[in-house]
């Protein structure tokens, strides 16, 4: 029996959409800018599984110069606390220096306590008559509301204040501050309040692969990219992991063929259409959800290298230059008419 050889590259997907920047994203970002004078700290949430791709340059531009804590959410879905995971986290911390960086699972009491203690210490280092106000920002569906709810429960023992969901866009407006730390007269602090915000997508994604990564982690709605295409990209990544081909052995033999894989899933799970025909779309969506829940391996989609952030920023600068050149060209065309 020949050994299985996974695909080395994923086929180019030139026709995929490259944007998911919606009206409430722009409105939310505009509102955030007007609030900065009353904000003591910004928590930027990024998805642990896409540490580079979930970076939004709009936040860098709009919130620059503010004190910031970077939190990588959903660590439980991308890490098994292996030496390779810890090395990756060391690299990511270095990217953000001197800003502090934390890696969290909102279901971990230890992780939430670490964030809570950071908020308390930050509040104690400055006096505010109205209490410390923290603005939480990030891409859609990155886990901002789940983090807020966990901090509220741990800090003031109250039920969740923010709605959460499997699809992006649950939070569409900036909420009023939610208390996560009570007033402490001994320390002279007036409490800590967290302000939840709608997720803000990047105006334009530089390449199709980045769009597929963001779709896989749930930053765009599942209707934006064909489920079978997205599942094929997931299968590509699963097969790249050590022993990944064994994670779906209950459905089929190791394969690079997404149709063969999904037909096996359809038969095994009963996701069939009329006449017993496999429902590939339904099976693909189910598999994607299984991975998002951590049932088909825990791994990171981005390649994390020491100079990875620098490369990403150079790409963004190049993209901005091209956009500016394109805009000047259009302006000249208008002037000529």
Kindly report the average pLDDT value: 87
Order of helices and strands: HEHEHEHEHEEHHHHH
Overall shape: globular
Question: What name is given to the CATH topology of the domain at 23-196?
Answer: Rossmann fold
For the record, the CATH class of the domain at 23-196 is Alpha Beta
> Count of DSSP E strands?
6
- The CATH architecture classification of the domain at 23-196 is 3-Layer(aba) Sandwich
Percentage of residues assigned to helices: 40-55%
Looking at how many chains there are and whether they match, the oligomeric state comes to single chain
Largest sheet: 6 strands, mixed
**What share of the residues does DSSP label as strand, in percent?**
5-15%
Specify the structural class.
alpha/beta
Number of helices, where a helix is a run of at least 4 consecutive DSSP H or I residues: 10
Catalogue the unreliable spans. Answer: none
Major beta sheet, strand line-up: 3-2-1-4-6-5
So, the CATH homologous superfamily of the domain at 23-196? P-loop containing nucleotide triphosphate hydrolases
Instruction: Specify Rg, calculated over alpha carbons.
Output: 22 Å
Features:
337 residues, alpha/beta, Rossmann fold, globular, GTP binding, GTPase_MTG1, hydrolase, Mitochondrial GTPase 1, P-loop_NTPase
Brief overview:
By secondary structure, the protein is an alpha/beta fold. The chain contains ten helices and six strands, in the order αβαβαβαβαββααααα.
How do the strands and helices of this protein lay out in sequence?
Blueprint: H1 23-35, E1 41-47, H2 57-62, E2 68-73, H3 83-96, E3 101-103, H4 109-124, E4 132-138, H5 144-156, E5 178-181, E6 192-196, H6 208-216, H7 227-240, H8 258-269, H9 280-292, H10 308-336
């Amino acid at each position: 029996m020949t050994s299985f050889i996974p695909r080395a590259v994923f086929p180019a997907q030139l026709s995929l959409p490259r944007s998911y920047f919606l009206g409430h994203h722009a409105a939310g970002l505009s509102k955030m800018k007007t609030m900065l004078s009353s904000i003591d700290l910004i928590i930027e949430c990024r998805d642990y599984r896409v540490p580079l791709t979930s970076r939004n340059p709009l936040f860098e531009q709009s919130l620059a110069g503010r004190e910031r804590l970077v939190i990588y959410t959903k660590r439980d879905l991308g890490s098994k606390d292996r030496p390779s995971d810890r090395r990756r986290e060391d690299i990511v911390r270095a990217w953000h220096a001197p800003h502090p960086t934390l890696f969290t699972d909102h279901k971990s009491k230890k992780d939430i306590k670490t964030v809570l203690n950071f908020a308390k210490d930050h509040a104690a280092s400055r006096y505010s008559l109205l209490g410390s106000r923290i603005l939480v920002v990030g891409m859609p569906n990155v886990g901002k509301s789940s983090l807020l709810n966990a901090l509220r429960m741990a800090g003031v023992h109250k039920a969740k204040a923010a709605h959460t969901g499997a699809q992006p866009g649950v939070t569409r407006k900036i909420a009023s501050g939610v208390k996560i730390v009570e007033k402490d007269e001994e320390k002279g602090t007036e409490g800590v309040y967290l302000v939840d915000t709608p997720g803000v997508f990047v105006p334009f994604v530089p390449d199709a692969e980045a769009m597929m990564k963001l779709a896989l982690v749930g930053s765009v709605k599942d209707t934006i990219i064909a489920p079978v295409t997205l599942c094929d990209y997931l299968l590509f990544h699963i097969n790249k992991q050590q022993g990944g081909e064994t994670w779906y052995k209950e459905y089929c033999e190791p394969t690079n063929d997404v149709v063969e894989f999904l037909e096996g899933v359809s038969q095994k799970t009963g996701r069939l259409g009329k006449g017993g025909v496999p429902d590939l779309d339904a099976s693909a969506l189910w598999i994607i959800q299984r991975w998002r829940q951590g049932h088909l391996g825990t791994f990171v989609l981005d390649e994390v290298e020491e100079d990875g952030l620098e490369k990403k920023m150079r790409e963004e600068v190049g993209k901005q230059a091209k956009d500016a050149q394109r805009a000047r060209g259009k302006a000249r065309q208008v002037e000529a008419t």
